[in-house]
Design goal:
Radius of gyration: 17 Å
Low-confidence stretches: none
Oligomer: single chain
Strand order of the largest sheet: 5-8-7-6-9
Number of strands: 9
Number of helices: 6
Strand content: 25-35%
CATH superfamily: Nucleoside phosphorylase domain
Number of domains: 1
Largest sheet: 5 strands, mixed, barrel
């Protein structure tokens, strides 16, 4: 496939080798305007904003993924396979199942369980385990420790269901799954298939253990700066 692709209007070379990928297009815009020097809008198809600029002298891009595995599956596939992107760092939010994690703590997703069917396309004779790139994961953990942030490394759940008729998903907690989001398993699958690198860093936005702990849409858009800075430093 030539570029532009059906979902990205950027030209060849418009993206840096590393792309930060929030779910929310407005978070992408916020990062570009507040952290990047000389950001240039390189994609706005369907309002999914992508920017390229520099951070501490290094070229970095940021582009939204939208919500869910099908959406991030499309954007990460096109970036990895058609735009020469080598690393994608998802910076999203998650709900936590872990009593030791609280709002604004960070989760570094070493692996991503899923109730979805994304990996069925590979026709594997078993179950594929989507995992992060260890180099990115190690750098992120080191940066969190350097900054004195509260964080945990472990498994998360990438769910295809937000409004789950069968319950909250707390069953995953008994397997020490730290929390739930909706994108990372597909990102990790695409990275593995393309021979590229991926990592998911999530900020806890709400808790299934402590329902009073939650954040607003605006807070999720603009106040999760610890996660943004960790991702930019390792980029």
């Amino acid at each position: 496939m030539a570029v532009p692709t059906p979902h990205i209007e950027a030209k060849a070379g418009d993206f840096a080798e590393t792309v930060l990928m929030p779910g929310d297009p407005l978070r992408s815009k916020y990062i570009a305007e507040n952290f990047l020097e000389n950001p240039v809008l390189v994609n706005n198809v369907r309002g999914v904003q992508g920017y390229t600029g520099t951070y501490k002298g290094k070229r970095v891009s940021v582009m939204a993924s939208g919500m869910g595995q099908p959406s991030i599956g499309i954007y990460s596939y096109e970036l990895f396979n058609f735009y020469g992107v080598e690393s994608i760092i998802r910076i999203g939010s998650c709900g936590t199942y872990n009593p030791d994690l609280h709002v604004r703590d960070l989760v570094l997703a070493q692996g991503a369980c899923t109730n979805g069917n994304f990996a069925s396309q590979y026709n594997l004779p078993g179950t594929f385990c989507p995992i992060a790139d260890f180099g990115l994961l190690r750098k992120a953990a080191d940066e969190c420790e350097r900054k004195g942030l509260r964080f945990k490394v472990g498994n998360i759940l990438s769910s295809d269901i937000f409004y789950n008729d069968s319950g909250s998903g707390m069953e995953w907690a008994k397997m020490n799954v730290l929390g739930v989001e909706m994108e990372s398993a597909a990102l990790y699958c695409n990275a593995a298939r393309a021979g590229k690198k991926a990592l998911c860093i999530c900020t806890v936005s709400d808790s299934f253990i402590n329902p009073d702990e939650n954040t607003t849409a605006e807070e999720r858009q603009t106040s999760f700066t610890d996660m943004m800075e960790v991702a930019l430093e390792i980029a």
